[in-house]
Amino acid sequence: MRQGKRTERIDSDTMRTEGALQKIQVPSIILKAGTSPEGRKANEDAVAGLENVKLMHLEGTGHNLHHDDLDATVREIYGFLPGID
Prior knowledge:
Elements: E1 28-33, H1 37-47, E2 53-58, H2 65-68, H3 70-80
Parallel strand pairs: 1-2
């Protein structure tokens, strides 16, 4: 076993943000896989009121967005970049 800093592993079905998104101070894009209407609403609620965060759902994709739809992933990123000052 490696000596040094210990990292705890958390098993969860969803990423837990608990206030982390509110700390974002730079323009950011969050790309999410296509999801149910309830999942979409939960994601939208998580970023509601965050001026520096743009949320995009890529329909037809799963966990690995760039593998499932590279063109759409790149298009969203390139579309976001010119808006950064």
